[in-house]
Amino acid sequence: MAAPPRHATMQSISNGGIAPGIDKPQTQQTQQAQLSQQSPGLRVPSNRKTIYDRHLNRSRNTELSRASFAFLFGEMVTYAQRRVTGIQDLEKRLNEQGYPLGLRLLDLLFYRSTSTSSSALSSSSTSSSPPNRPLRIITLLHLIHGPLWRLLFGRAADALEHSVSPDTPNEYMITDNDPMVNTYISAPRDMSMLNCAAYVAGIIEGVCDGCGFETKVSAHNQPTELWPSRTVFLVRFGDPVMEREKVLERAGVK
Amino acid sequence: MAVPAYRGTNNLQSLRTPNTSRATLWRSKQPQFDSSHNLPEYLEAYQSASPPLASPVTLGVFSLIIINKAGGLIYQREFQAGLRNLSTNDYLVLAGTFHGVHAITRSITPKIPISQPAPFPATSSTGTTVPAASGYSYPNPGVPVSGLDYLETDKFRMTCFQTLTGTKFLLFTDPLTGHVDTIIQKIYELYADYVMKNPFYQIEMPVRCEAFDRHLGAWLRGRT
Amino acid sequence: MSSTKTSRIGEETRVDKVNAELVTLTYGTIVAQLCQDYDGNYQDVNKQLDKMGYNIGMRLIEDFLAKSGVGRCANFRETADMIAKVGFKIFLNVTPTVTNWTSDNSQFSLIFEDNPLADFVELPDDGRAQDELWFSNILCGVLRGSLEMVNTPVQMQIEAHFVSDVLRGDDTTEMRVSLVRYIEDEMPPEEE
């Protein structure tokens, strides 16, 4: 499987929680020494309150203030805006910020789907999600449309569609009528094309990549009168994915 | 099918309009989404047929202006069609003037001598001597001094709500309109949501937030 | 205002909710991005986090006031109570302990039992992060920014910094908050 280069670079972040800085050779040596003694390089509190001592499902159903999310997300947008040249660039950056989340959430979804009953994943909108990594596009998209959306936003996405154009069999669309991340955001008039849900597009991309589906995902405004911030996530799978899909189809893999 | 968002997409020229031709393969079963749960607030306002607080006197909200800490006008909006418009300049002057008057009303709040009256200040007949402030205090010192709270004529009432951060909301209503405090409180909440949480809004600058306009308008309409 | 009444406001203020993991991971991604952008210069990351927090604080205070409906605090002790029992309760659903007051009532500590921002976090094992990075430094900026904005009738200037963090291997997570000064806002209106 040819992992996209981006996946490889992001992997380092997903390991430690934070991108490691450029290590000085000295510290690397000391680290190695410590590792060889089987003792971790990090100090831990005397009560051993580390992430390894807490159950990963501890925060499963916990909630926090939506305002806190909005302020953090807003600050992420503001910060990204200072370093970009245009709307596309800004969306790209937001996408990149979401990407590592997708990789992690994928693990979390799998972990939770296997540690509890597998039906947790396939509760309502998806009828046949297997607990394991999706192999086919449709299974993957159902995972995103249902369980991922429910984990993030407490409900499934509003629609999932496939392009019928013969030119674009690799394009799929996930629609959210009212994306939570955009609730409080009004883009200025001269940036009306902007959709900050590019962050969510990045999350989707991370999930797809993490499953071995090379994808580009982008977020687009498609407002209706009833749903002024309706957003379509356009998912475009890469050629290798489409080729593999054909092989799997022939082999009868679900 | 018209796709408004893609009109004139200079920035996304690489993208084809994605839904020119597509088939719905999977659309989630509608009932499964608790639609009432997912509806945004401004739609709920439309939906709730019963008027809040069962009071018909919530009609008559004419207009709102918001004044920043420095006295600058940052928002102005009329809520009833056909109101005679003041010019932008009139509004700017109104905001600046009110800001000044508000500060004056605070500073002229009478002070009374604290418990042990200091030796009576030698107030000359011309009134030039200003007593030392330390010997005086506002009545009921626990309650902070506020400025002008409202201003009323036979035809309208202007209510001022100043937040602890110094922003002022001025609501023009019919003198008979009830629950003005509740209305202003809700406006403050909408402001906290759709103005303060919008990363594109710059603090102290004019408010141009489409979502704020939308929710404010819908909420006020929902009340009538 | 009595301490129990303050707690009650914190408990009863209605708050729109969102999945906690989304908040935690979003904050994590912000810090990770900064570490990348600043080439692992953690002092700069701390500064930037504080700056971001300050920007948030200037906005968040309006949300705090609008939703909680609380009034002005009579003194710094009341302010501390309000921060811990209403502010942190509303925005992070935790209530840090207010303690270690100086005798002149101008400095206190907030001790965090739980910190949702750091829920899944382990600092990089690079030999420096645990000595240099204050992962939750954004909170210091938030306090500074929000208290500075409350200026009617008196503006408050504070300083806040972390003195320990369980992520660094300390036994507690403690933030020290100091009142720098009150700025009276009794200026006559500037009329042209």
UniProtKB/TrEMBL annotation, chain A:
Pfam families membership: TRAPP
One annotated Gene Ontology cellular component of this protein: TRAPPIII protein complex
The keyword Transport is assigned to this record: yes
UniProt function note: Plays a key role in the late stages of endoplasmic reticulum to Golgi traffic.
InterPro entries: NO_sig/Golgi_transp_ligand-bd, TRAPP-I_su5, TRAPP_component
Disordered: annotated span: 1-47
Record keywords, A-Z: Endoplasmic reticulum, ER-Golgi transport, Golgi apparatus, Transport
Listed GO biological process terms: endoplasmic reticulum to Golgi vesicle-mediated transport
Compositionally biased tracts (Low complexity): 26-39
Protein name per UniProt: Trafficking protein particle complex subunit
Family: Belongs to the TRAPP small subunits family. BET3 subfamily.
Alphabetical list of PANTHER family matching this protein: 41-2 PROTEIN ANTIGEN-RELATED (PTHR20902), TRAFFICKING PROTEIN PARTICLE COMPLEX SUBUNIT 5 (PTHR20902:SF0)
Subunit structure: Part of the multisubunit TRAPP (transport protein particle) complex.
Compartment annotation: Endoplasmic reticulum; Golgi apparatus, cis-Golgi network
Organism lineage string: Eukaryota, Fungi, Dikarya, Ascomycota, Pezizomycotina
Automatic annotation (TrEMBL), chain B:
SMART domains, per the entry: Sybindin
Positions with biased composition (Polar residues): 8-21
Keywords associated with the record: Endoplasmic reticulum, ER-Golgi transport, Golgi apparatus, Transport
Disordered: annotated span: 1-21
Source superkingdom: Eukaryota
Higher taxonomy: Eukaryota, Fungi, Dikarya, Ascomycota, Pezizomycotina
One Gene Ontology term, aspect cellular component: TRAPP complex
Species of the source: Penicillium egyptiacum
The protein's name in its UniProt record: Trafficking protein particle complex subunit
From TrEMBL, chain C:
Domain of life assignment: Eukaryota
Keywords, alphabetical: Endoplasmic reticulum, ER-Golgi transport, Golgi apparatus, Transport
Keyword Transport applies: yes
GO biological process: Golgi vesicle transport; macroautophagy
InterPro entries named in the record: Bet3 (IPR016721), NO_sig/Golgi_transp_ligand-bd (IPR024096), TRAPP_component (IPR007194)
Cell compartments where the protein resides: Endoplasmic reticulum; Golgi apparatus, cis-Golgi network
GO CC entries: endoplasmic reticulum; Golgi apparatus; TRAPP complex
Chief location bin: endoplasmic reticulum
One Pfam family linked to the record: TRAPP
PANTHER family: TRAFFICKING PROTEIN PARTICLE COMPLEX SUBUNIT 3
Protein family membership: Belongs to the TRAPP small subunits family. BET3 subfamily.
Name of this chain's protein: Trafficking protein particle complex subunit BET3
Source organism: Penicillium egyptiacum
